[in-house]
What does this fold into?
Amino acid sequence: MKIPPVKGTRDFYPPQMAVHNFINDGWKRASIRNGFEEYDGPIFEYLKMYQIKSGDEIVDQLFNFKDRGDRHLAIRPEITPTLARMVNQQINALSKPIKWFSVPRLCRAERPQKGRLREFYQWNIDIIGIDDVLADAEIIFTTIDYLRQLGLKPADVKAKISSRKLLAALLCNIGIPEEKLDSLYPLLDKKAKLPADTFEELLKENVCDGAKVKTILDLMSVDSVEKISDIINLNQEAQAALDEIKHLFDLLAVMDIGEYCVFDMSIVRGLAYYTGVVFEVHDMVGDLRAIAGGGRYDNLLRDFGGPAISATGMGMGDCVLEILLRQRGLLKDGQLQTRKVEFFVAYVNDELLKNVLEITARLRQADISTSFSYKAQNLKKQLKQAAALNAEKCIILGDELEQGQIVIKDMSTGEQSCVDMGEFFKNL
Amino acid sequence: MKIPPVKGTRDFYPPQMAVHNFINDGWKRASIRNGFEEYDGPIFEYLKMYQIKSGDEIVDQLFNFKDRGDRHLAIRPEITPTLARMVNQQINALSKPIKWFSVPRLCRAERPQKGRLREFYQWNIDIIGIDDVLADAEIIFTTIDYLRQLGLKPADVKAKISSRKLLAALLCNIGIPEEKLDSLYPLLDKKAKLPADTFEELLKENVCDGAKVKTILDLMSVDSVEKISDIINLNQEAQAALDEIKHLFDLLAVMDIGEYCVFDMSIVRGLAYYTGVVFEVHDMVGDLRAIAGGGRYDNLLRDFGGPAISATGMGMGDCVLEILLRQRGLLKDGQLQTRKVEFFVAYVNDELLKNVLEITARLRQADISTSFSYKAQNLKKQLKQAAALNAEKCIILGDELEQGQIVIKDMSTGEQSCVDMGEFFKNL
It folds into this structure.
């Protein structure tokens, strides 16, 4: 009986697994050098945990099910709710600031599209307990630090940065009632995805006042912090929010990633839960979805039944990233090895198999990757097999073995030498 | 709103994550040095895939659900069906032998017990395409190679090895009809878990013939290959199976893990799908569940709609293993670091924060793990924080910075030296 894989999932054959590990290991290394500790949570949680953060609409986008005790559970579509739950559970025992990262496997019951699958990995970094843009700067730095190390230049990718606090202050400043903001964010967030006239129409429906619509449209097109005060007279709150974002850009410049960062008022992020700096990393050449996104979310831990503690974080999925790296030639098929073979032990007849096994076992016990052929095919075939496995060196067992000698062949230079086996193991 | 984790799942806070990584990295290293390539599959598959291998009873033990297209899916309880599906899909493109490993996250809708959770990790290694006990020997070697490297001795753990082929031949040899074997295996597999008289009673019900029951009981207690021929006169098939298992033990001795291996007829493995060598690794001191189990399964790929290709493999879960390592003192709380800090950058006043960020960013860009305090608390406090983070070295920024000098303090020796910052970065 032949059964296919489920649509929107991936099979990681060794070559694909090597790509996955390349991305994953890079995420981990960047996290570690930036001072983050790794955590993880369960692959499923109570369904209601996701409703707290994202409302009831999320239920349809989750793989949800009941266990035998009739508990309503869901495969995690994101890890932030788990993070909030875990931090709240041990809030007093954990020393602050909490700087954690994770590379969770996540699932969403969506229709698969380019760069969006039903199962994917997402790098998450979060700093909890620091109510200062310095933490936001570190989150953005860590994100760029990773992308830069991959070989992506400021011409390839940019962190587009704005602030929910600033946007809220500006909207209030021009007379939008505060209680209207939460419904306005998802619309403003869609600006880049909608035709200009559709966006304007929806905005008119929502805001009603033509002058205000005009000011909002002007504000949303601003690409430099300095230009905001050309559009409206800033009140005190708006000025404070503006100063904060200016300070953020100063910090990013000091950290030498200024060229990767731009101010962009149109970055809003759909979710209600952001409270301060928000950002998305975008491909500057193609038309891919956002590579990464994040921001400050100071209320989430409280919403999950914990104390009011400020937090800021970032998420980066693996699907869009892989497409981008391939487009830029930074990831090529066959570039990554699927197997490590330091020694390949070849032998000239089946009677030497015992010696092959003995030597292989000793090398492996010394943590040296070693392979051999299950059959003593002719030596040429074995050496071909060794080459196909990218073996660094071959040990050839032949008649010399009677004198305790083995032949070692360097597979890159082709050089061969005969050495004493005892010496060989002594020098490992 | 406070929501608990789901029963039977684990939260991996950084200390637990460090343990998880310790186990996981060891599995990966052992796999790589033994010549295996990594693969992985989706976290969920079509439910019916699991029914093929394990029958309809499995459905209750799975977290299963329907997607929006009304497809019946399940979170994977094991990865072998995925392996069979993936190998069959690319059977012609994959060069043989296929030596693959994976460390999948798996879920089973069971009642949580000691060493058995509803979500766990399992190391899997498989060799496909080699119909020779040499492949079984490599699977057992790799398993022991890992456990030995952890510090476990032959007195701690043993691979108990038997053969389905031998068992089948012996049972047929004493007159059990071949069609009865599949129903007999699950019962024989329970021998160690049942009181002796209960086992005997069930066996009588199943076999009926008292003399045969007696012979089976004698056979099941055999702990050495040599003793089998004392119990029954071996026919040709049984003799061939016996020779094969003897040859396996010869190979294991050559590979220098003979002391870790014992012959044990009572190892049957419940599943119908095993066809040759079967083994379980058991703790010799405590009363834990099996640490690992595996064997040859030559029909599975065919059952999954592919060609008849022989295969052999092993699975080892993380839960029992962790309990064992803790019991033996091979894994201690606090033994593993959760964070790496090569440099901690301290500063004497907030005006130097810019310099802290600049130096931190440069070090991190050079892939050097670096941390700093978000506030310029007094130096003593910062050094205490650095010590708490296990920092290897501190860079202290003070008045010397005006002359381009920084102080470097070795945190293990306490030694301090003043160096030129330009020189410092040049020598990194």
Notes: Chain A has two domains: 14-41+76-327, 343-426.
